Amino acid sequence: MTYQITAPRTRVHGNMWLHQIFQCRAAETGGIIKRQLHDVEKEVGLGVLIHEVKRRNFRLLRTNAHVIIICDPGPIRVLV
């Protein structure tokens, strides 16, 4: 039996965390990004995220436990 040794994942905080969110493919192609609200509050704060979403002309939804960023500045229709 062989085992593969992997390097531990490094955690990214603050501005780097925010930068990574908006550099992902979903942000670049008009997709959706979902993060736990707890993580947003711990890393940058909801206010900072709201500011960055507005700056990019995206939309932000919030549930009890998650935030959902819609990376498309076009109109949104709620169907249900």
Question: Please, could you describe this protein's structure?
Answer:
With 80 residues, the chain is α+β, with helices and mostly antiparallel strands. The chain has a domain at 31-74. Helix content is 40%, strand content 18%. It has helices at 14-23, 25-29, 37-43, 46-55, and strands at residues 32-36, 59-62, 66-70. The protein has a 3-stranded antiparallel sheet. The longest helix has 10 residues, at 14-23.
Structure at a glance:
This is N-(5'-phosphoribosyl)anthranilate isomerase. This protein is an alpha+beta fold and 80 residues long. It has a domain at 31-74.
Average the pLDDT over all residues and give the rounded result: 89
Shape: globular
> Which strand order do you get reading across the main beta sheet?
1-3-2
> Which percent band covers the strand fraction?
15-25%
Q: Termini distance? A: 52 Å
Number of helices: 4
Q: Nearest-angstrom radius of gyration? A: 15 Å
The low-confidence parts are none
Sheet/helix structural class: alpha+beta
What's the total number of strands?
A: 3
- Largest sheet at a glance? 3 strands, antiparallel
Order of helices and strands: HHEHHEE
The portion of residues assigned to helices is: 40-55%
Question: What tags apply to this protein structure?
Answer:
4 helices, three-stranded antiparallel sheet, 80 residues, alpha+beta
Q: What is the fold's blueprint, element by element?
A:
Elements lengths: L13 H10 L1 H5 L2 E5 H7 L2 H10 L3 E4 L3 E5 L10
Antiparallel strand pairs: 1-3, 2-3
